TrEMBL record:
Pfam families: TetR_C_1, TetR_N. Residues 29-89 form the HTH tetR-type domain. Gene3D superfamilies: Tetracycline Repressor, domain 2. The gene is tetR_5. InterPro entries: Homeodomain-like_sf, HTH-type_TetR-like_transc_reg, HTH_TetR, Repressor_TetR_C, Tet_transcr_reg_TetR-rel_C_sf. Residues 52-71 bind DNA. One of its GO terms (biological process) is negative regulation of DNA-templated transcription. The keyword Transcription regulation applies. This is Tetracycline repressor protein class D. It comes from Actinomadura macrotermitis. One of its GO terms (molecular function) is transcription cis-regulatory region binding. Keywords: DNA-binding, Transcription, Transcription regulation.
Length: 253
């Protein structure tokens, strides 16, 4: 009698002495979104240097070649990751009366997002914004400055200056925390280092370094947020100094 095709397709019972086989997990279809999300998990766990096409492919239980249909290379993957992170930055609605405060608030939020993803800021420091989320941040910065009466040319140049300042501060933060051993509180380590540095500066020969020796506490006292805010204040005051009197804008006080 010929075999019944339906019977051949039916599941077979487990033979005596063998364990039942576990069903293989259904592989999720590859997409650019899935690849970037997986790369972000690797980044947050191990840092940017660990994010390679091979490593992401391993996480997805596939070969690196299968990723290239969705992402051209590692550099594009890093840029896509940066743009994904930029989507976490809240963008304010421009208020002409508060444009300077809003520029600073946006900068603090950008720095917060960059530093929340290990050393991703390294990608931002060396790239030009082209992704939709990064362009939205630039558009918001321009809109805030234009709402305050900043001339177009000044606003266009200021976007680059602000970006470099935010990126550099975030990179410095991640470089420092990377030096701290696993399980150690980076801020406790930082405070110990600053205390030692202050004592060193106080001990410098005052005849050779009179200002540093005298200002050792002032040079070492302010912490990250205060220093970042001070730098932002200098930049925003400088930008505001270009605002012209008249209906299009107000002079900075």
């Amino acid at each position: 009698m010929p075999a019944d095709p339906a019977a051949d397709a039916a599941p077979m019972p487990t033979p005596p002495g063998r364990r039942p086989r576990k069903a293989a997990p259904r592989r999720q279809p590859l997409s650019q979104e899935l690849i970037v999300a997986t790369a972000m998990r690797v980044l947050d766990a191990e840092g940017l240097d660990a994010v390679t096409m091979r490593r992401v492919a391993q996480e997805l239980a596939t070969g690196p070649a299968s990723l290239y249909a969705h992402v051209a290379n590692k550099e594009e993957l890093h840029e896509l990751m940066l743009d994904r992170a930029a989507g976490e930055i809240p963008l304010p609605e421009p208020d002409p009366a508060r444009w300077q405060e809003q520029i600073k608030e946006l900068a603090f939020e950008s720095r917060r997002v960059w530093t929340s993803h290990r050393d991703l800021a390294r990608v931002s420091l060396g790239s030009v914004p082209t992704g939709p989320n990064l362009l939205a941040v630039v558009e918001c910065q321009l809109a805030l400055m234009r709402a305050g009466g900043v001339p177009e040319r000044v606003a266009a140049l200021a976007v680059d200056t602000l970006g470099m300042f935010i990126d550099a501060d975030a990179v410095e933060d991640t470089v420092y925390t990377a030096k701290v051993g696993p399980g150690e509180d980076p801020w406790a380590h930082f405070h110990r280092y600053i205390a030692e540095l202050r004592e060193y500066l106080y001990a410098l020969p005052p005849e050779r370094y009179p200002n540093i020796a005298r200002m050792a506490r002032l040079l070492t006292e302010p912490e990250g947020d205060e220093r970042f805010g001070f730098g932002l204040d200098i930049l925003v005051r400088g930008i505001a100094s270009y605002v012209e009197d008249g209906p299009a804008g107000r002079k900075a006080v």
